[in-house]
Specification:
The protein is mostly helical. Helices cover 60% and strands 0% of the residues.
Length: 70
């Protein structure tokens, strides 16, 4: 179920928001672009301060998408 994924917790259960972020991430060619987008555009809109574990898992998934390990 979506809420069990990192995005479910990071996006307050809003599947549509999560999907929009994933769509945007798919437009980037470099991991650094994706990380900058998350830090500058995504994180400020959501309170991830108590969700470090889910944030780390989300970043792991993003890195895997770009073929990079932790």
């Amino acid at each position: 179920e979506f809420v069990q994924l990192p995005g479910g917790h990071l996006f307050n259960g809003e599947q549509g928001d999560f999907n929009r972020v994933l769509s945007q991430l798919n437009t980037f060619e470099q991991l650094s672009e994706a990380e900058n987008f998350i830090e500058q555009m995504v994180k400020p809109d959501y309170d991830w301060s108590q969700k470090e574990e889910f944030e780390m898992r989300f970043y792991d998934l993003v890195r895997q998408k770009f073929g990079e390990e932790n």
